[in-house]
């Protein structure tokens, strides 16, 4: 059993109320029950404290608790991460090699290798220590997997793919397929060979069902500490800098460079042969058709600085209102 006092100590927070309260789970504030702890640092959840059945709350101000027990913290999101880790009951993988898997004789089996059923590792693959490879995974010849990596079920790595240490690739992702490159001549589509590779940096997480194409004239690159959501597509020769966040459903066209610490929100499209400057933010459902300078927020189709977009939207709305008035007056 874990007490509220132990939780407070773990996250270095200020305990308010009964320190002996038992906490057995972490739950949404609207679904919580006795022995639950809930996060209530956003306005929507602060208002729900009074009616919630949770036993305790994590907040950023003592006043938010309104007499309820809880923990006051300075950084609520880091505290959330630590608390969720405390109550993570997902099974810890057993490191073993399934008798129904296939490993080429040239592959060295390092310490703590897990290989699930029906997975295949081809010749000259290099695998680091403490690597977990799920079921139905295919790793092509000459690929390199760094230490402490996780490749979940049904991941496919084509030949000569590099995955940096401490990286995670979720189920159904395909890395290293040919890019979409053709030259049409006399009504015939000539395929452009994709002879380069894909290099994934360290501490990268790639969501489920992503596709990352190999390069034609240069490697496709994903920098250290990048996080890709589910169903992201990176075309051939793309270069993603360090620390980028790319949300679900984003497509990035071939030979585009996204510099360090760029955020691309969900279902946005970035065209080919562009550069997105450092620390730029692309709002959801944007369509980027030209290169964008660093350290600005962009939105719309085509994507433009968000202040400019808002001004255009406001002007369009005023014209709509004026048009309705004119029609109403028979003009």
Characterization of the model:
The chain contains five helices and 38 strands. The chain is an alpha/beta fold. The chain folds into two domains: about 80 residues, Udp-n-acetylmuramoylalanyl-d-glutamate--2,6- Diaminopimelate Ligase, Chain: A, domain 1 (3-Layer(aba) Sandwich); about 200 residues, 3 Solenoid (UDP N-Acetylglucosamine Acyltransferase, domain 1), CATH 2.160.10. The longest helix has 23 residues.
List keywords for this structure.
single chain, 331 residues, alpha/beta, Udp-n-acetylmuramoylalanyl-d-glutamate--2,6- Diaminopimelate Ligase, Chain: A, domain 1, UDP N-Acetylglucosamine Acyltransferase, domain 1, 2 domains, ten-stranded parallel beta sheet, flat
């Amino acid at each position: 059993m874990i007490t509220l006092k132990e939780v407070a100590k773990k996250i270095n927070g200020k305990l308010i109320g009964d320190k002996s309260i038992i906490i057995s789970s972490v739950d949404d504030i609207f679904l919580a029950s006795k022995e639950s702890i809930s996060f209530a640092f956003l306005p929507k959840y602060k208002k729900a404290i009074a009616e919630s059945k949770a036993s305790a709350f994590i907040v950023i101000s003592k006043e938010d608790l309104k007499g309820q027990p809880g923990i006051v913290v300075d950084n609520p999101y880091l505290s959330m991460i630590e608390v969720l880790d405390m109550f993570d009951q997902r099974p810890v993988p057993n490191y073993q090699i399934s008798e129904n898997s296939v490993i080429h004789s040239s592959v060295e089996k390092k310490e703590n290798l897990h290989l699930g059923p029906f997975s295949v590792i081809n010749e000259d693959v290099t695998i680091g220590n403490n690597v977990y490879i799920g079921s139905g995974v295919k790793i092509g010849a000459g690929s390199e997997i760094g230490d402490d990596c996780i490749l979940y079920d049904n991941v496919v790595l084509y030949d000569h793919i590099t995955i940096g240490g401490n990286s995670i690739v979720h189920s159904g992702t395909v890395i290293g397929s040919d890019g979409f490159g053709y030259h049409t001549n006399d009504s015939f589509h000539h395929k452009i060979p994709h002879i380069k590779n894909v290099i994934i940096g360290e501490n990268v997480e790639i969501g489920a069902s992503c596709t990352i194409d190999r390069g034609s004239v240069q490697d496709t690159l994903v920098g250290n500490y990048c996080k890709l959501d589910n169903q992201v597509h990176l075309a051939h020769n793309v270069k993603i800098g360090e620390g980028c966040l790319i949300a679900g459903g984003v497509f990035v066209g071939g030979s585009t460079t996204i510099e360090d610490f760029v955020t691309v929100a969900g279902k946005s499209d970035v065209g080919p042969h562009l550069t997105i400057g450092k620390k730029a933010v692309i709002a959801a459902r944007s369509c980027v058709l030209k290169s964008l300078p660093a350290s600005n927020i962009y939105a719309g189709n085509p994507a433009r600085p968000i202040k400019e977009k808002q001004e255009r939207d406001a002007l369009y709305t005023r014209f709509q209102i004026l048009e309705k008035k004119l029609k109403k007056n028979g003009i």
